[in-house]
Request: fold
Amino acid sequence: MTIFERMPIKEIKGYDILPLIKDPAKPETIREATVHHSIRGEFAIRRGKWKLLCSPRSGGWSYPKPNADKEAIASSPLIQLYDMDQDPGEKHNVYKEHPDIVVNFAAESHVDRSIEDPGIFLQTNIIGTSVLMDACRKYGIQRYHQVSTDEVYGDLPLDRPDLFFTEETPIHTSSPYSSSKAAADLLVLAYHRTYGLPVTISRCSNNYGPYHFPEKLIPLMIANALADKPLPVYGEGLNVRDWLYVEDHCKAIDLIIHKGRVGEVYNVGGHNEKQNIEIVKIICKELGKPESLITHVGDRKGHDMRYAIDPTKIHNELGWLPETKFEDGIKKTIQWYLDNREWWETIISGEYQSYYEKMYSNR
Ligand code: DAU
Reply:
């Protein structure tokens, strides 16, 4: 069984979905997490009363350094590796210790990858979710929390700034990624109604912050700008995303699992809408790089125009409000990428290069 126990986050660098639990005095508190990417394989992290589940599939251990991380993980006395694909009969062992709460951060999360290869998204995001929930049913759980996305609502038009996604907005997806997340959300709600599983769902807007995988807009632009490489903006760059610092997202999840009502969906977002081109220009400015690096490339297929969350419910019911202003968060994020070059340079020098070549060379 794959159980990671009391592993300092540094030892498992490269898995950017991993939650960073920074305060050893309060191991049950998630202080920070990046939630945008999973590696292929399936594993769980346990710390204190938490068991945090990610779902890379077998083979994904080759990322970012083929064997180094796997060996480091396998050689730790605190960790057992279990490949769910190899021995599905063992999968429920992850719950032998009876965690109180399961937070499913796991996802194949990159829209562009889902357009290239939808299958793995269906496997990880839909089947993976049902596997976890079946185990929760079998072993009993106080709360199963599903980390979802605002992308399940589709997009909003640019000329209607008065419109926002509420929890009542119909599901209306655009990409294989968002469709797989929507399917998972429906399954979660179905497990609640059919089996009485105590579930909650959060649907968050775009995150940014430390350990954000370099294929996503903000880290990609930081890495390219630092290397004086072209900054590939899809289309005109007018698409709008609603950016939230990752710690604010984690605080929202923390509140929901402790105080949120079972069976409910909570939208999470901080009213921080920005066009992609604005973001890229901010990054150029912060890094002292010329805007002439900006290169408009072919648009994403089915590209969602605007995401905008209405967070009234989580604010009114749970008192959540974002704490990090974008101007501060983006500075902190850029500084983090400057201070942690080894982490992302290792990633972009590996398998990622062929991904980048495939996605951007003829765009
Ligand atoms: O809204 C929440 C979602 O945010 C999450 O559910 C997804 O997992 C996460 O990946 C993110 O989705 P986006 O597609 O919005 O994120 P991404 O960073 O890929 O792209 C942000 C915007 O920037 C989007 O309009 C596409 C554009 N873009 C992206 C890349 C990577 C570019 O213009 N150039 C690029 O090279």
